[in-house]
Amino acid sequence: MSEYNVDRTISAVFKKQEEVDGAVRRLIDRGVPRDRISVMGNNFQSETRIAGFITKRDVILGGLRQGAIFGSLFGSLLGLLSGVGVLFIPFVGPVVAAGPIGAALLGAASGALAGSAGAGLASVLMTLGMSEEKAAIYQTRLQAGEFIVMAEISADKSGEFQLLMESAGGEEIHTSDMTLHRPCAGRCNDVADLSPEVRAHLSEEAQKTFVESYNKAFDDSNDEAKAETSAWDAIHKQYDEDANGVWSKVKVTSA
After folding, report:
1. Each residue of 121-138: pLDDT tens digit?
2. Which CATH number is 183-250 given?
3. Where in the chain is the domain with CATH 1.10.1740.70?
């Protein structure tokens, strides 16, 4: 648990991976919980290309993939954060994502987050109070190979963390008085604990599947972002969407 109430999100764009490394490490040093920090980029330096491990088709069909392989592939920085994997973002393409933003985007692609910009990064950013123009800038710069860092912080530390982002090289800094939604606050005791944003896009049976998968992952990791990622992955594997965007059709597996 964090030492302060988390009620705001500060975001920034960085041009260089070294700047991202520095910003994340300074955020952690200042007490921001690792599961409250998100990083996205499609231009991380690595000795082995993503294509060596996962195809574009795998990314599109499978959504976010988590595991230690990504921590080792993209360096110790992402290994510090939760839910690391590859996510296909509409209008951007395959992106390495770490932290709660990855799980939120996986939900957005499933219709679990609604926004005037439609599913994708801009939609999620706009749910945090970012203007459509600012969200478009973030999406364009991510597509161009730059990086996004987001941290969920307490209101009384907003000024401190804005200076931190600026001094680390952050640009287009934005602070909102909202945080990314979580399906549950900690463990889900029942489907009734699911947030309305998630529950509205799952059938009753899919809700049970989501909760079971979420709780199993949460019990193993005590990490909400990892649990949410695991739950959405289970939904994608076991169900198809109906015409209303509700995950309700049980997939038919061949014998």
Report:
1. 887 788 788 898 999 999
2. 1.10.1740.70
3. 183-250
